[in-house]
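Subject: for your reference before the review

Hello V.,

The reviewers asked for a structural picture of the protein, and I figured it would be easier to keep everything in one thread rather than splitting it across files. Below is the amino acid sequence we used in the manuscript, unchanged from the supplementary table.
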Amino acid sequence: MGTMKQIAVVMILLNISYSQFSRSQSVDIDEPHTYTPPRHYFQTSSFDEADQDDDDAAKNPLDRGPYFDISASRNVTALVGNTAYLNCRVRNLGNRTVSWIRHRDLHLLTVGKATYTSDQRYQSVHNPQLDDWSLKVLYPQQRDSGVYECQISTTPPVGYSMMLSVVEPITTIIGGPDLYIDTGSTVNLTCIVRHLPEPPPLIQWTHNEQEINYDSPRGGVSVITEKGDITTSYLLIQRARSTDSGKYTCLPSTANPMTVHVHVLNGEHPAAIQGSKGLGSSAVVVTFALLLLVLLATVRAFPVR
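And here is what came back from the structure prediction:
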C-alpha cells in the first residue's frame, strides 16, 4: 500500500513538471511576427544608404557594377534659344550603354553617342575623362521643359531623372513706354530683369541708339545695378534738360532689351504733347471729310441723267 502511494506522488509531480514545460514552449498565434532580412539584402527603391556604402567599401569597386554619381544637381535651367546641357555622370559603365529618354512622351532621344530621334536638336556628348554622358539641347524652347532620364542598359535598366526648365527672361522699365519729366528734375529710369538662372553679367543703357557715357562733360548721369534673383538697374539723370529727351534702352547681356521714351517738359502739359502726336492723323481725317463734302455737293449740283 505504501508503494502505491509513492507511485501516485511521483505521477502527480511528473504531471506538474510537464504542464509547466508545455506552457513555456507554447506560441501565441495572435502575436505578430516581423521578418528582418539579412543586412546584405536591400531593394533599390528603399534601403539604408549608410549600410550600402559600408558594403560597397568592403568589396572591389569594380564589382559594384555601373552606378550614377548623384553629386550634380537634378534641376537645370536654360534660357530660350541658348544651348542647354543635362549632365549625367556614370561610374563603372563597362560595356553598358547610356541612353536619354524624354518622360513627356517616353521618346528615346539618344543611345550611346548616336541621336535616336528625328529632332536633331538633341545630341549626346561624351566626356571619357569625367565619365559624363550629357544631353545637349540646341535652341531650347519653353515646350522642351520637363523631366528627362539618363538610363543605363543594365537588367533591369536603371535611370537617373533630371528636370529641365526653359525660361524666357522678362525685361521691363517702370512707367514706360512714355515718361514725362519736368525740366530741372531728376530722371530715374528703373529697368527690371526677371526669370534668369543667374544675374546678367552686364546691363547697358543707350540714349537714341548711342551708348551712354557716364564720364561725359554733361555730368550728373550715373547708373546703379543691384544683382540677384531679380536684377534691377537704375539710370539717374540729374537736372534734366530738353536735350535729355529721346529714346532710352536697357540692354541686359542675357535678356531682351526694353525701351522707354522720355519727354522733358518745358512748361508744357503732357496732354498737349500727346495731342501733338495725333495731330498728323487728325489732319488727314479732316481733309478726307472735306473732300467727301465737296464730292457730295458736286453730285447734287450736277445730277447724273
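For the response letter, the relevant points are probably these. The helical segments are 2-25, 49-58, 270-277, 279-301. The first helix runs from residue 2 to 25.

Happy to draft the paragraph if you're swamped.

O.
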